[in-house]
Design brief:
- This protein folds into two domains: 30-131 and 264-282, 3-Layer(aba) Sandwich (Rossmann fold); 141-262, NAD(P)-binding Rossmann-like Domain (Rossmann fold), CATH 3.40.50.
- It has 302 residues and is of the alpha/beta class.
- The N and C termini lie far apart (60 Å).
- Helix content is 42%, strand content 16%.
- It is built from nine helices and eleven strands.
- The chain has helices at 9-29, 45-61, 76-88, 107-113, 125-133, 141-152, 172-179, 198-203, 263-295, and strands at residues 5-6, 35-41, 64-70, 94-97, 161-165, 187-191, 207-210, 228-231, 234-237, 240-243, 255-257.
Length: 302
């Protein structure tokens, strides 16, 4: 029985971080040290693990860490004050508010308060609008990581049929937008809880991205032989972490990413990429201005 090739997110993420470390060294030589801020509210075990991993990654590539932790009882005003503080912090290049937030905190109000130029997650309405319009800006980390992972494993994207299961704001919806850009030009079916016969849509696809957060939702009979399958959603159980894709899919698919070691490391690597890119964009105008001053000229802003 054939076994699918395992998609290795840890390897690709390590390569991305190595390349970013070189870019950070160049920035620091110019007097610019990128800094990632995180705001964590409450005691959600998964969130604490994610944030700790992000700051370990920062240490690896030379990015400064700024951690803000609030109790689960923090008020809306306290969470918003933390966002404003990082907006105003010159040492913070960009930051994230770790989701989920406690139920009493209005997530949308909090996210809209983030300075769009410091939006490390690419989820601010301004930056999602730029994505729709094809303008430059921070990109949502998990969708960006998925696309990079596919490219690094030689999975065709242009012209391919994608089935994305789950239409959440962090993965499904922005992934559909990114896959239909001219740089990708894939055909995307976005499935959700009201979709009739999700399995039929999945079987008709070259690539299936499972981001529903339902353990072992995608089964072998949902997959066309040789298709690529990415398990993005996870469910924490007493037996451990379970992905959205049933292990038996390995016998049908051509390439598969697991619940761990696949998309997760790439999400964190793309967060660092966004931080470095923001720092590089900010460094360019100052360098141009300095050059113009030395030359006795003026800077054109067109």
């Amino acid at each position: 029985m054939a076994v699918a090739t395992r998609i290795d997110g840890r390897r690709v993420a390590a390569e991305v971080k190595e390349e970013l470390a070189g870019r950070v060294r160049i920035l620091r030589a110019r007097g610019v040290r990128p800094g990632l801020g995180t705001i964590l509210v409450g005691d959600h075990a998964g969130s604490h693990a994610y944030v700790a991993g992000k700051h370990r990654d920062c240490a690896e590539v030379g990015i400064a860490s700024i951690r803000v932790e609030l109790p689960a009882t923090a008020s809306q005003a306290e969470v918003e004050a933390a966002v404003r503080s990082l907006n105003d912090d010159p040492g913070c290049t960009g930051f994230i508010v770790q989701l989920p937030l406690p139920a009493h905190v209005d997530m949308h109000r909090v996210l809209q308060l983030i300075d769009p130029d410091k939006d490390a997650d690419g989820l601010h309405p301004t930056n999602l609008g730029k994505l729709v319009l094809g303008m430059d800006g921070p990109l949502p980390c998990t969708p960006r990581g998925i696309i990079e992972l596919l490219r690094q494993h030689d999975v065709p994207i242009t012209g391919a049929r994608f089935c994305v299961i789950g239409c959440g704001i962090t993965v499904g919806r922005p992934l559909g937008l990114m896959l239909t850009r001219p740089t990708e030009h894939a055909t995307v079916t976005l499935c959700h809880e009201a979709t009739v016969d999700v399995a039929e849509h999945a079987r008709a696809s070259d690539v299936v991205v499972a981001a529903a957060g339902v353990a072992h939702l995608v089964r072998p009979d949902w997959i066309s032989p040789g298709a690529t399958v990415l398990s993005v959603g996870i469910t924490r159980t007493i037996e451990g972490i379970l992905g959205d894709v049933h292990p038996e899919v390995d016998a049908v698919a051509g390439k598969v990413s697991g619940a761990t070691g696949g998309v997760g490391p790439m999400t964190r690597a793309m967060l660092l990429t966004n931080i470095v890119e923001i720092a590089e964009r900010r460094a360019r105008p100052s360098e141009r201005a300095s050059s113009a001053i030395r030359a006795g000229g003026r800077v054109e802003t067109r």
